[in-house]
Amino acid sequence: MARVTTKYVCNSCGYTSAKPLGRCPNCQAWNSFEEEVPTVTGGKTRGGGAGGYGGISGGKLTPLSTVGRREEPRMSSGISEVDRVLGGGLVAGGVTLIGGEPGIGKSTLLLQVADSVARAGGTVLYVAGEESLEQIRLRADRLGVTADIQLTRDTRAEHIAALMNEHRPVLCIVDSIQTVTVEGEGAPGGVAQVRDGTSMLTRAAKETGTATVLVGHVTKDGTVAGPKVMEHIVDTTVFLETVGAFRLLRSVKNRFGQAGELGVFEMRGEGLIAVENPSAAFLAERPVGVPGSVVAATVDGQRPMLLEVQALASKTPYPNARRVVVGLDPRRVDVVLAVLERRLDLTLGGLDIYVNLAGGLKVPDPGLDLAVALAVYSAVVGRALPANVAVFGEVGLAGEVRSTVASQRRAEEAGRAGYKRLIVPPGLAGHAGVKSVEEAVGVVWQTAKA
What we know:
alpha/beta, Rossmann fold, Ribosomal Protein S5, domain 2, 3 domains, nine-stranded mixed beta sheet, six-stranded mixed beta sheet, 11 helices
């Protein structure tokens, strides 16, 4: 006899439960469970007359050696930083999911991309699920959009797929996927609606060769709202986030390129403007000749950048000295401080130590250890580093300086920015590395005297 099973799904993260819960144990959302349509399981018994698998035969198999090779065609988005994050541009038939906080600039950025693609001669379909067409026109006027973009307010997935099949646009933007509805699947924004809508639009994109961008809402912890399977369906997932005065576009999944790429933008009146040289932007306000300031060569994702590590030491008025860390891993900073006390006999017990990665970025890079060590030493002894020195390297418990990932790219980025002297681990071609923190301290201030 057939058995009916009922399950409840969190419309925020896709967590399933046999009964409705007041609070989701996975994403902590309240009153987010919805009942899914019951499914009937059972049918023919195993070992029956039709065979163990109901008489179903397997499909055709294709040997890998007979499969042809095909490079997916790409087109430029018209914005260099977007092309960098996507791995070279928009892919025909590729589906990209972009997430970000409300008001961060997702719609602004995509309207700029739509304008660039349309001015290059491509047809662009813009599905406006959250704004009226008049609101989009006002934003277009503010951004100076001059191209003729095709707009629609119809958010039914079947109709969007039909428009893609009929007009064959080179780019389709759906803002947002939570407003797309599929016939007979419940309320808009529900788990089934988002999942099936994403699947239908992805299938239409593959069939028509349309590069498709889906805007997704985010939860309070910063992840894309909806079932996790949605991120598995799409080809690329990127996030737009705020860091100080900048916007960062970061890829976390990319089937057509390298994940972890980073694009830097600045929000202005005319829209999001690409920052071609992030190192210069993040170091623009760095004070020169001040103790406790060190230029560090780091890698965020796959992008090398120069950032400023700052340290401040002051006599503590409290029984226990404070350790305040912003933008770095606090436990790694504690290790570096212990190495300074033990290996360099630097007295830190009665001092409050503040360590900051200037600019608002959060970078958990072990290669920043040596910069933290030199910044704290500089702040404690009151001696500034030379203005033309850049630093990177991991610090071990024995005080040794270890090599880091992407050392060559870090060194090249420092050279392009005009930093002639590098304090780096041993083994980097063309540079005399330092083997320990003590040796690094000696090399830095010998350089200063020279």
